[in-house]
Amino acid sequence: MKSAIALLMMLAPFAAHGQLLKCVGKDGKVEYASLCPPETKEIQTGIRNVPSASPSATTQKSLAEREADFKKRQMEGAEARQKDEKIAAESQEKQAACEQARTYLKSLQVGNRIARVDPKTGERVFLEDPDRPGEIAKAQRAIDGNCR
Fold first, then answer.
1. Do 146 and 101 touch, CB atoms closer than 8 A?
2. Most CB within 10 Å of its CB: which of 40, 46, 123, 137?
3. Segment 55-113, tens digit of pLDDT
4. How many helices (H) and strands (E) in the chain?
5. Distances (CA, A) of 29 to 35, 38, 67, 70
6. Residue 24: enclosing H or E segment and its boundaries?
């Protein structure tokens, strides 16, 4: 059995031009060839190999193409998810900035005391009444920019 398989493997390149035949000798020895030697019984195997239309070559190519298409779709999907996540994160940041600006504007309009830390001294400094209209205008611009 092993010798028959080995013979088949050795003869496979030669059998590529036609049909593969099973040749059985008088002593029962089996050979595979495209042409059987004289004094052997010829049995059709049904195996045909046409080099120009080899199904395995087209299958391999289509599998490779399908693999490349699959990887391309995966990459495009990952890029789309990253883009969507980035847009969602920017939207959340803008919404948080909008809410913060609205809260600050409300605090300014109600008249709450607003304190800040002086960057030079590190002390807490309260917003004076003459500076309040300027801060209200800044808060309104922040709302206009972030709350759309």
1. yes
2. 40
3. 555 556 788 899 999 999 999 999 999 999 999 999 999 999 999 999 999 999 998 88
4. 3, 5
5. 16, 13, 44, 49
6. strand 19-24
Instruction: Name the packing angle between helices 132-146 and 55-110 (round to 10°).
Output: 160
Q: Please give the pLDDT value at position 42.
A: 86
Quick check: helix, strand or coil at residue 41? Answer: strand
pTM assigned to the model: 0.47
Which residue is it, tokens 């496979």?
12
* Residues listed for the chain: 148
Give the position of tokens 């050795």: 10
Angle among Cα 9, 15, 17 to the nearest 5 degrees reads: 150
Q: Return the minimum-mean-pLDDT range out of 2-6, 76-80, 100-104, 129-133.
A: 2-6
* Token duo for residue 126: 């309260």
The amino acid present at 116, given as its one-letter code, is R
